[in-house]
Amino acid sequence: MPSQYQPHQRFTEADRDKIAGRLRDAFADGRLDQPEFSSRLDQLYAVQTYGELEPLVRDLPPVRTYQTPAMVQNTTPAPAPGEFPERQKQKQGKSLVALGGGFGGIVLLNVVIWFVIGIGNGGHWPNFWPVWLLIPWAFIVLGQLGKRR
C-alpha cells in the first residue's frame, strides 16, 4: 500500500476494487489456489482499514501496470489537430489497359472475338464492330492521361 495512508484509515470502494483485481490476477496466474482466493476475497469484503488490507496482498508481487500491445507500439503517432499527413503516391501503370480500367479488358475481348470470327470465315473479315466500344474507351483513356496523380 502507498506510504501516504495510515494503517488505521478507512479505504474507499475503489481501493477495494483494486485489491480484488490484484487477487484475481494472482489467482489467474496460479499464485493462489481456489480456497485461498475465496478466503482472501471474503476477508477483503470484511475489512475496513488499510492496516487490515495490507496482509491480504503482502505476499503477492506488485501490481501489474498496463502495457501497450506490441502491435500498437511501433506505429507513428497521430498528427496534431489541423495537420494532415502527406499521402503516399502510388505508382500506377500507364499501359492502355491500365488506363482504361476494366473497360479496356472488355474492348480487348471483343477485338479477339472479331479476329476469331474473321479467321473462322476463312479470312473474310466482317465490319470492325468493336470500334463502337473503342470510341468510348478512347475517351476514357484520354481523360485518364490528362489527370495529375
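[next item in queue]
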Amino acid sequence: MTMSADPLARARAVAEKRVCTDTVRIYIPGTFDPDTWETTPDIVLWEGVGAVLPDHASDVTVTVQDGQGTPVSKMGRYRMFTPLSAPVPTLEHTVALIASADPDAVGRKWRVQAVERSSAPVLRLTWLTYDTTANGGS
C-alpha cells in the first residue's frame, strides 16, 4: 500500500476512518402547508460518513447580588465532523444521525449553528444545536 506524499491527505484518510464512524444526513426539513394540509418532503443535501459529538464545555456560573451562584447551562451544543468532500451546510439545514454505534443516538436531530473554516483542513467541523422540538421535547 502506498501512502500519499501529502501529510494532510494521510491525516484526512485516518480521520475519516477513525472519527467518521457514523452516518449523518444533512437536509432541509419539509414544510407543512396549512391550506392543503400536506407536508412537503425533506430535501436531502447529503448523506454519508460523519460523527456528532457533544461539546462538553464547562457550565458558566453567574453570581447575583445575594452571593448565590446560579449555573447557566451551555448544554445542547454539538460538533459534527464530516469529510471535506461533504457539502458545506448552512443555517437552514438540519442534521440527523442515521446510523451510530450508540443506538440511543440514532434518529436524533440538530440544527446547524456555524461551520468552521481552516487553512489546514482535515475534517469539516460544523457546530450544531440540539433540536428539542424535532426530538419530541427531549
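[queue empty]
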